[in-house]
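Progress note, project year one: complex with glycine.
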Amino acid sequence: MNILLIGSGGREHALAWKLAQSPSCTKLFAAPGNPGIAQEAELIDLNAGDHAAVVGFCSAHNVELVVIGPEAPLVAGLGNDLRAAGIAVFGPDKTPAQLEGSKGFTKDLCARADIPTGGYVRTATLADATAALDNFTAPFVLKADGLAAGKGVVIAPTREEAEAALADMFGGQFGEAGAEVVIEEFLDGEEASFFALTDGKTVLPFGTAQDHKRVGEGDTGPNTGGMGAYSPAPVLTEELQACVMRDIVQPTVDTLREEGTPYSGVLYAGLMLTAGGPKLIEYNARFGDPECQVLMMRLEEDLAALMLACAGGTLGEWSEAKFSDQTALTVVMAAKGYPGTPEKGGVIDLGSAEADGAKVFHAGTRLDGDQLVANGGRVLNVTAMGGSATGAKDAAYQAVDAISFESGFCRRDIGWREVERET
Ligand code: AMP
Ligand code: GLY
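Model obtained:
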């Protein structure tokens, strides 16, 4: 079948790389793509916000499956318009995508379905929010309700800081996303991510990962979209995964189906492993970036066939999705300045980075003539496999060291938790 992939980051490069290897993929298009994706797919100049244009392209080119990488087109309802035109889509419709699009939507669903998560209050005015702080203790967790590119969460150590942050949020710091604010109980523990594929009914576990959100070594400094990740995450034992499936993911999928808004695609559960068991921090309606890169390195299945089964309601025919037992680890090379204003245009030479089986996924790159240059905050995702987290880390940094990218930087300690546990 012909497939159209929507997106342009490292996540989409990893998806394109895996889709291009799928026996069931005949021709892969990507819009808008990037220079890495161009090695796997034909790039199309198509605006994902123009749903009629996307539908028109699919009809004209016999596209049978559209894979939507990022959250914004999902929340905007691109899936609805494609499905209405009879085109299969990997990714949820607009309403179930509210699992990512609205923190309050997810919290209310957890309350209805008795899913373990932190206690919370939804507030729509600064006065209500400030008063609601009385019901919580420090540190205070404040979340802009809507999509805020991963920046909408504030953890305030004191009441004064919480009140100041609320004033900023209701003052328009996050635009429309901050029109409502969720105040949440602080959860203590180690974070881990659990992925599942679903067609709205069947739920198939799809791997675990841990990422590093802070820009600095030792998990310090400002939050980013993620500076590196590894999979699997052994802290999510088989037993804990079974518990997450039973108590969190399956009830979410069942509730949405029973309420007439079935969810299909990938469900990414951000979890806190608390002393009282795993609790949901948040859902994403798409793969993590860079978690997707490590999942795709390990996946031993026909990705296109799995995605079509999610879109077509036949996931029940799959008993499991097979992954390599090896560990995959990805190091993000970012442009200096990230997560503030990244330097653009820095020259990149990948050298022999891929010589020993590592894979360099392009996140924010551009071709300037024949020269690869930086074109974003997160620029490259240098990904490798190993028999342990330590082995994968060594292989990934060996590849990093083969790359010349003077205006770039990376953390040198990706995977440290797992590496420490292994020694
Ligand atoms: P989110 O965008 O919801 O993933 O939140 C960003 C980060 O804030 C998470 O990865 C956690 O590290 C932290 N966080 C969010 N909610 C909580 C919570 N209720 N308790 C503790 N930390 C949280
Ligand atoms: N790496 C975190 C995310 O994709 O949301």
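The radius of gyration is 21 Å.
Residues 150, 211, 225-226, 284, 288-289, 291 surround glycine (ligand 2) (CB under 6 Å).
No further modelling is planned for this target in the current period.
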